[in-house]
Amino acid sequence: MKTASSFIALLAAALGIVTEGFQSIPVASNIRTFTSSSSPLQSSTADNNNDALIKTEVSRRQTFELAFAAIGLTTTFAGTRENTPQDYGLWGILPVGPYKRKKTIMESIVDDTMWTFDQKFGILNVQVPLRMTVIKLPDGGLFVYDPIAATPELLGMMTELEKLHGPVKHIVLGSVAIEHKTYAGVFAQKFPTAQVWTQPGQYAFPSNLPIPFLGFPAGRTNVIPANAADAPADWKDFEFRTLGPLISKDGAFGETVFFHKPTKTLLVTDTVVEVTKEVPKIFEDDPKPLLYHARTTVTEVVEDTPEIRERGWRRVVLFGLFFTPGSLMIKDT
Known about the structure:
Elements: H1 4-15, E1 17-20, E2 23-26, H2 40-80, E3 105-110, E4 114-123, E5 126-136, E6 142-145, H3 152-165, E7 168-173, H4 178-189, E8 195-198, E9 221-223, E10 238-248, E11 251-260, E12 265-267, H5 288-294, H6 306-321
Parallel strand pairs: 6-7, 7-8, 8-9
Antiparallel strand pairs: 1-2, 3-4, 4-5, 5-6, 10-11, 11-12
Helix pairs in contact: 5-6
């Protein structure tokens, strides 16, 4: 009776070739033909030769697989390495524009009290600002609403604020939208003493995983309380209301808005959208999406001027709002 290795060798003979490394070679020279006159010693020698051949083949295949895996790991490392302050190593979790490089601009809204941090977010060249707001708490420390990508540049800005006003105490994710919650968990991991608060109704796709599996730190992640009586004591300068979660065939929507009483500022995510004629400052760093949409034809080459940027911005806004035009209520100002 022939062994398994002999059977494999004969099967290879039937196919005509075996692959050794990257060369196709005839198998006749590697296979012994067994006849009734073959002695047991000859048969055993043939089996040993075939076993050695197969072991060599497996060894080479394993080497190739390891080399392929090494290339993959090297590519992954290169893609996640943050070479500049604007790089976001985990951009592949949500691979949308502007991809790895996420420039941040910081603006003081109320001196020593409120700051905004803007990055860009979008699909291909349809990119719009994505904003995080930071407010100084009355007894010291910082309140963060809707975190954005935790690039070295952004974390450096936050470090400077912490030096002046105390540590980040509360990080609030006020939405269930993927473009916000994807960044919130990573941002929260960078501030290990902060309490994390999430909008009710968070979900994951395709499997609805628990919050810690989405990157949020276990043990200090909470659902935003239903009323002020259950809120932390240092939220006394805020009023807040929660909408949703609303579940439909088109997806889910949920949002918690905060009203900062001392500055009379309403913090919202998507419930209210303000569209201005002026081009947002975040596009000053890279206006290519605006120039792309300012074209009248595919082949048109446009100059980079304030008028061209404004035209591109208006078209980006028009394109973005047409995703759900029936849900919009436009108010004249």
